[in-house]
Amino acid sequence: MTRIFKMGSYAGNDAVHDQPTPGNLAILTKVDKLRELIGTKVALPQLVVVGDQSSGKSSVLEGLTGFGFPRDAELCTRYATQITCRREIEESINVSIIPHADAPPHEKERVKKFHRTLKTMKQESLAELFREANDAMGIKTSTKSTSADGINLSAFSEHILKIEKLGPDEEHFTVIDVPGIFRKETEGITTEGDIELVRNMVKNYMKDTRTIILAIMPANVDPATQEILKLAKKADPTMTRTMAVLTKPDLAIESTMKNIAIQHVLGRRSDLSLGYYIVKNRGPDDLGMTLEQGQVKERIFFATEPWSVLRNTGRAGVFALKARVRELLVDLIKKEFPKLKADIVKERDGLRSQLDKMGQSRNNQYTQRAYLNRMGEAFQTLARDSLNACYDNDAIFDEQHELRLITRIVDESEKYSDVMSKNGHTRPFESDGPDKDPDESSDPTLARPYPELEDFDCPELEGIFDPSDVIMPTTDKKGDIMGYIESVYKESRGQDLVPISNTVISAIFKDQTKKWKPITLSYMTKVIFEIHLFIKEILKQVCPDERVREELWDGYLLEGLQKSYRVALDQAKLLLKIEREESPMTYNHYYNDNLQKSQAEHFVVALEKLGLEMQAPVDTKHTNVRSFEQGTFLSKAVLKALSLNMGNSEYNLKLIHDILKSYYKVSRKRFVDVICKQAVNHYLLRGEGSPLTIFSTQMVQELNEDQLDMIAAEDAPVKLRREKLVRDIQNFDDALKVLRGSG
Question: Half-sphere exposure of residue 354, counting CA atoms within 13 Å on the CB side?
Fold first, then answer.
């Protein structure tokens, strides 16, 4: 009977060629080898069985694989099951678990240890096998809801149970079964969340274009109402890789339902390119029946009316189904092989790139030093390119504009110069001319030009700044500089004919420049934070290993950075002290130029005043003044007699103001340049000890063996990751050999 059945005498022409040809067998074998090597890392051509719970999926799988699933309700599919049948000399069933890619490492290690081998196919042995697999995956049962350590168990798992059924009579075949969709939770076992989890699992398995969807539906329900077809339609909009399988035709009692099922199989009501097939499941009364006996009973069933109309369609019976799905799988594999090769090459190259970024294995001081040297060189390259505005040398400068360091520093320096020009003086200087010098005008919008220290998210730098250094001093609201000069003058004058001493000028100059300190140190703070954030970011780029980066940063770089920042701040404070507290001094001729211009302004004002007094008509014959339409002209005698009409004190106050104003302008410009050139450019950017030189090959060469091991030695997770990458790359190389026929 078995031999007659395998010839497919009732199933039509499609069933006659049930055994695959040698060429097709080789193709199926290749895919199995690929699945062994690269698992789920690249989508492989596969057959996935989907459907509702109790739709007859288990019986269809039994027919396709010869694997008798246990009938215990608690052992129904709670995870994806990959079943492979393959011809081998000895008969055995090998079972293992493929861990889900996103599972925690400890869980992956636990489930990977699960391996079982069976010699027989007895239902008792299979049931025990599934119970052990459920325990290994942490599946909840009606009597067990928590693990030994008190962790809540789940009703379903995203791990994959892998079953290899080997034997001399096996026909090469691989199929994946996923949990059946359900819509109502079972108290104490499943939840609303489990309903959604299973639905998403089914969707994920159906969505790949290299998957043939075998949608299982009972024949006693109209397929048009089945949710599984709606889900398949979303995954396969053209319905070109979806095949429907009707089960339990013996339960279709009404003639209407029988006719609907027959019409679908005949293709008269189908919108599926692959059409409908129909099989008869073993029923509750067939539990003691062998698979072979069940297949004979199926043959007899389809020989009766009205099902006999399907006799020669090649779409009735499990053998017809098995032959067709294997044929579809072979065709799909042949079609996808070129794309599959490209995907495998791309994935392998990506893994190689990850391994290259990790560098050599770092198990001695030589490889550790070489590893850090490469990072130091990369760090210096990025720093140099950023300082020289060579932003085309690395894409990171386009992706992260905040790393264009020198551009940001130039912006801050120009802003600093502008703030010092507009707001650096304590009180505005007086101007006798009609046009006020724009450099000496105040700008209220620059009252708080820089952020406060707490605005920066760098707690490691808080200790190097003194918040009181950047507090802007208060001044009287009137801002009367002449009144202030007069008060200082009256408290300091003596009987000397030359009452203006350097001491008076120094005191007034120091008061006039008391905003310089908060403005300058605010600028220095902003520049330091810009540099600090730049260093932290490019360190992430050159050192992707977080543990190495943290060890390098906390143990070796941060202290040196803090020291270099303090040195730069101390230099700025020293320049402030020299410029503000030491005696005023300059050899810059612009000081005299400015002073002479101020003095000339007073005479211009006096001349203009004299000219106004002489605007009335005069007798030019009896005066030394000649009047023309274009203006008033004074004779030499009048000019000799010209006087500013100021007392000694008023004259001295004006002179002090003019000296202060002239010197202040020269001093401010000099000071701003020196701060930018020395404190910033030398100590923070380009000098030998600048923070941008902190991480270099020279620094690496100075590390001893213990320090190298502390920083660069690979910890266990990195070693495991490296080993995994090496294994995966080798597996992908082997997979390419399989595709080329050399593996």
Answer: 15
